């Protein structure tokens, strides 16, 4: 057991060293602006998204129009929407209910999850605010509230409630949130295509997995779990900085690492349940 602990400690120290080295390569997000390696297009698109989202949420330019965001550029096309029931112009985007007749509206095609849940377009969003908004929407959109309404309203209620659920689950966890932000930029992480994870990093992960399998006590498993949480916190900071600087390729590499550590975290939970 002593030998296993020494082996586990050494491999975690190497992973920690690797993450510290990665942080050193990242620019100081509070320093003066510097030229970044990504294209002008991706930088302008990233800042454009942030500005457009704030405008939509806080009544800025274009607030009274429906902004349909494409998956690649997050650009908008202005298409004013009217209530399906009373034909009045809908004042907000997205609109869940008509302000005039109070009828529930169908989901707006192309609306981002950030706009649906009225949260800032940022990797480090406020999850407490996210949960509060989610519960608020589900209380008003749940199909049980429309059992005595028309078939169309019941259908819209089910669609809106399902969409809010999907948006919440996607934005709640850092990994799925980051992957979704990359998808909005046209970048995807597909299964079996993690070429960005080099052999050295994969070897370190294999050693952590072996240490987890060989752990004999809850204390040993908890230690691996705490170290993994620390690595995920480090990666969260690095990914936020990369997205803030518009370095999407760097963010993609770091999200790949986060995916592996999230997998280890789930294995830790399963291992701890075996001791109960």
Automatic annotation (TrEMBL):
Compartments it resides in: Cytoplasm; Mitochondrion
Gene Ontology CC: mitochondrion
A GO term for molecular function: protein-folding chaperone binding
GO biological process terms held by the UniProt record: [2Fe-2S] cluster assembly; protein complex oligomerization
Entries under Pfam families matching the protein: HSCB_C
Residue ranges annotated for the J domain, each copy included: 112-184
UniProt keywords, alphabetically: Chaperone, Cytoplasm, Metal-binding, Mitochondrion
Classification via InterPro entries: DnaJ_domain, HscB, HscB_C_sf, HscB_oligo_C, J_dom_sf
CDD domains recorded: DnaJ
UniProt KW Metal-binding keyword: yes
Keyword presence, Kinase: no
Pathway(s): Cofactor biosynthesis; iron-sulfur cluster biosynthesis
Quaternary organization: Interacts with ISCU and HSPA9 to form an iron-sulfur transfer complex. Interacts with SDHAF1 (via the first LYR motif); the interaction recruits the iron-sulfur transfer complex composed of HSC20, HSPA9 and ISCU and mediates the incorporation of iron-sulfur clusters into SDHB which also interacts with HSC20. Interacts with the cytoplasmic form of ISCU and with CIA complex member CIAO1 (via LYR motif).
Family of the protein in this entry: Belongs to the HscB family.
Its job: Acts as a co-chaperone in iron-sulfur cluster assembly in the cytoplasm. Also mediates complex formation between components of the cytosolic iron-sulfur biogenesis pathway and the CIA targeting complex composed of CIAO1, DIPK1B/FAM69B and MMS19 by binding directly to the scaffold protein ISCU and to CIAO1. This facilitates iron-sulfur cluster insertion into a number of cytoplasmic and nuclear proteins including POLD1, ELP3, DPYD and PPAT. Acts as a co-chaperone in iron-sulfur cluster assembly in mitochondria. Required for incorporation of iron-sulfur clusters into SDHB, the iron-sulfur protein subunit of succinate dehydrogenase that is involved in complex II of the mitochondrial electron transport chain. Recruited to SDHB by interaction with SDHAF1 which first binds SDHB and then recruits the iron-sulfur transfer complex formed by HSC20, HSPA9 and ISCU through direct binding to HSC20. Plays an essential role in hematopoiesis.
Protein name: Iron-sulfur cluster co-chaperone protein HscB
């Amino acid at each position: 057991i002593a030998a296993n602990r020494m082996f586990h400690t050494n491999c975690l120290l190497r992973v920690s060293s690797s993450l510290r080295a990665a942080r050193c390569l990242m620019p100081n997000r509070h320093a003066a602006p510097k030229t970044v390696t990504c294209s002008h297009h991706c930088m302008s698109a990233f800042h454009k998204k942030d500005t457009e989202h704030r405008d939509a949420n806080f009544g800025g330019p274009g607030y009274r129009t429906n902004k349909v965001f494409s998956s690649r550029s997050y650009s908008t096309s202005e298409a004013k929407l009217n209530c399906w029931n009373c034909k009045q112009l809908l004042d907000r985007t997205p609109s869940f209910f008509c302000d005039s007749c109070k009828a529930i509206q169908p989901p707006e095609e192309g609306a981002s999850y950030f706009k649906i849940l009225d949260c800032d377009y940022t990797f480090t969003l406020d999850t407490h605010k996210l949960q509060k908004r989610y519960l608020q929407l589900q209380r008003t959109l749940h199909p049980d509230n429309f059992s005595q309404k028309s078939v169309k309203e019941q259908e819209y209620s089910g669609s809106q409630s399902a969409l809010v659920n999907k948006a919440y689950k996607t934005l709640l966890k850092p990994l799925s949130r980051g992957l979704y932000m990359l998808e909005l930029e046209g970048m995807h992480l597909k299964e079996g295509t993690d070429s960005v994870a080099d052999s050295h990093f994969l070897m370190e992960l294999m050693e952590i997995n072996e240490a987890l399998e060989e752990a004999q006590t809850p204390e040993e498993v908890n230690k691996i779990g705490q170290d993994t949480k620390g690595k995920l916190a480090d990666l969260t900071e690095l990914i936020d900085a990369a997205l803030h600087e518009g370095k999407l390729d760097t963010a993609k590499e770091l999200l790949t690492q986060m995916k592996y550590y999230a997998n280890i975290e789930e294995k830790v939970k399963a291992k701890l349940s075996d001791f109960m």
